[in-house]
Amino acid sequence: MVGLLNNIEMKKAFYIILALILLLPSCMAKNKSYVIGFYNLENLFDTYHDEGKNDYEFLPDGANNWTEEKYQKKLSNMAKVIRAMHDDNKAWHAVLGVSEVENRHVLEDLVSQPSIAEANYQIVHYDGPDRRGVDVALLYRPDVLKVIESRSIPFTFDSKDIKFSLTKEEMDYFRTRDVLMVRGTIDGEMFAFFVAHLPSRLGGKGQDLRPRGAEIIYENASALMDKYPGIKIVVMGDMNDNPTDISMTEYMHGKESIGATADGDFFSPFTSMLKAGYGSLAYRGAWNIYDIIMVNHSLATDKSGLHIIPIVKNKYYGRIFHKDFMTQQDGPYAGTPFRTFSNGSFIGGYSDHYPTYIVISTK
User: Fold this and answer.
1) Residue 333, phi-psi category: left (phi > 0), alpha (psi -120 to 50), beta (remainder)
2) How many whole angstroms separate alpha carbon 236 and alpha carbon 96?
3) Which SS3 state, helix, strand or coil, does residue 99 take?
4) Are 346 and 70 in contact (CB under 8 A)?
5) Domain 31-361's class?
6) pLDDT tens digits, 199-229
7) What letter does residue 276 receive in the DSSP assignment?
8) Rg of the chain over CA atoms, in angstroms?
9) Residues near 151 by Cβ (< 8 Å), separated by ≥ 6?
10) pTM for this one?
11) Residue 200 backbone zone (phi > 0: left; psi -120 to 50: alpha; other: beta)
């Protein structure tokens, strides 16, 4: 009788242990984290002319003497940074938005670099209207993001509120990068990613154009939030503005803290980092964060699913990634991003921008 009871107890213990083993993967699956980032690749051009584009300075006989050797060095450098972020995070980016890329060809060359090929990055890219031929694009891991649709959103002057300084003729001539939208699912949750490179500040211009660019993004994001209640949205890009500028605070409805967001608002994690002295690029001795990532209210607050989490000092929700090899070590620009060109000369660096990223998690 005692032996029979012992056998029964042993069987119970066996089944309990078996049940725990079977439940373990599902418990672990509930704690997933993904890195989502943005990187301005600073003029990733190939060595061939694209018809209709002003890419002549990036040809072997152009102003930059852009040879195959320099192009391969540039590809290797960009891949080295992406690999370094992987090594720091112990994971490849699930989604990486990029800007200043000439065409799909350069992206295919980039993702096939030996140091990052194992990530199996797929590409979403559209040829846009920018006169130099630079576009934005999205690299993504297909095992994480299941893409449903994508589209290229053009810049228009159809604003009800913004008064533009350009004449009608200047508006007709104006060309800038399209905004990329990619919608899909991560772990069954609906996501949309917007990648932008808003109009330049060169010559002190664009004070009305960047707010319009932000307005376009926000209008399209709002339409998605109306159509798909609860959708989680990430807006990223080189905004050529700081997160404290009106393009981001008013036209993108960016808020410095999660607690300040409501439906229709975006949490702007790099606002507090800018105020604390962080920067992703330096200009005339001043640090800026133009490489902005923002998340909508749903992604900021939904604790039952994927949501943004703090990653720097358990305080800041964004990270500006930089290593010594990405940073100028001497000369008048010491301490700033080690760029590809300086004063018109090829110096073999990486980018004039540091990449930025956030982490979303179920934790």
Assistant:
1) alpha
2) 9
3) strand
4) yes
5) alpha beta
6) 998 867 779 999 999 999 999 999 999 999 9
7) T
8) 23
9) 126, 180, 181
10) 0.91
11) beta
